[in-house]
Amino acid sequence: MKPYIESILLILAIIAGSLTGLFTSYEASLTDFFIIAMLFLLFYNMSPADFFEGIKNKKYIGIALLSNFVIIPIIAYLACTVFVDKSSVIFSGLIIYLVAPCTDWFLGFTKLAKGDVKVNSALLPLNLLLQFLFLPVYLHLFTSNRMAVPMEVFLEVFIFWVLLPFLAAQITRWIVQKFAKGLLVRTNAVVEILLPITIVLLVFTIFNSNVESVLENVAILPKVFVVIVTFFIATFFVSRFIARRSTFSRGKEISLIMTTAARNAPLMLLVSLLFFPDQPLIHLILVIGMLVEFPHLITITYLLKR
Predict the structure, then answer these.
(1) Which of 161, 170, 173, 295 shows a CA-CA span of 20 to 30 A to 42?
(2) Which of 276 and 88 is assigned the larger pLDDT?
């Protein structure tokens, strides 16, 4: 599929999701379904050997982790400090959103942009673990909030959002391979078609289920929007600079740009609901961030593919 066609479909998904969300909203579980379906399709087209090959790329893994958990949080803090009062709830909500690297849909956009999915798949569990460990540290350093994330939350997310889709995909792949020699190649081709369709449907459901709550709180939109856009522009150029100074291949450069661009809004929304149940403004900021993020990812996917 040509890059401009994918971009047009994703933009149409945003428009359609937003418009239909004004009249009817689908269950949030539908979004979860498409995230898991996307991960299944990505993992299906990866053999275990591909995954372990990604883990062996220590240089990329090290630089990506340094970028995600040292450089990007500093950029997030600076962007928030310039535009938002440090003592406000908005500041805390933005920090929670901006410091957490994505652990799901960034793989889909890495694939769409022709990046190295293997190295970012190997990065996924590390991103998940480290953001749970470091989130209380960031909140302690950057805000007046104190919190600790219990490890059982991490284990639950890891099992249901990473391990199970990976195992389901690999077992299905093994069965297909055993059934007929040429069938795996044909199903791989089908998966390549289904993956962008799944991402389009994911974008549609996210906008459909969240646009109403955003419109109810338009007053905070300008300030939050400016911070997030500033952050995304800065991370794009910083990650590209780091990738080129590290002499990464084109595929790994795209992968680094994607892992630093995508944020983990769904998981951070869950965390904020657990630990800040009386702060709906924080929950709303995470939703706004997610809605701004997708046009950003669509844009850089199109630019990178060109």
Answers:
(1) 295
(2) 88
pLDDT at 146: 64
Q: What is the DSSP string of 244-271?
A: HHTT--HHHHHHHHHHHH-B-HHHHHHH
114: left (phi over 0), alpha (psi -120 to 50) or beta: left
User: Who contacts 302 (Cβ-Cβ below 8 Å, separation ≥6)?
Assistant: 3, 4, 6, 7
Cβ-based burial of 15 (10 A; exposed 0-12, middle 13-18, buried ≥19): exposed
- Give the pLDDT confidence of 144-187 residue by residue, as tens digits: 766 666 667 667 777 887 889 889 999 999 999 888 768 888 89
Please state, in angstroms and rounded to a whole number, the distance separating the CA atoms of residues 281 and 223: 13
> What angle in degrees, to the nearest 10, is found between the helix axes of 221-245 and 280-305?
40
Mean pLDDT of 1-22: 82
Taking the complete model, does pTM exceed 0.90, yes or no? no
- What are 263's strand-pairing partners? 101
Q: Which amino acid is at 239?
A: S
Assess contact for 209 and 28: CB atoms under 8 A.
Answer: yes
The answer to whether 94 and 282 are in contact (CB under 8 A) is no
Query: 3-state DSSP call for residue 101?
Result: strand
At residue 160, what is the residue type?
F
Query: DSSP readout, 144-195?
Result: S------HHHHHHHHIIIIIHHHHHHHHHHHHHHHH-TTHHHHHHHHHHHHH
Residue 145 pLDDT: 67
DSSP label at 47?
-
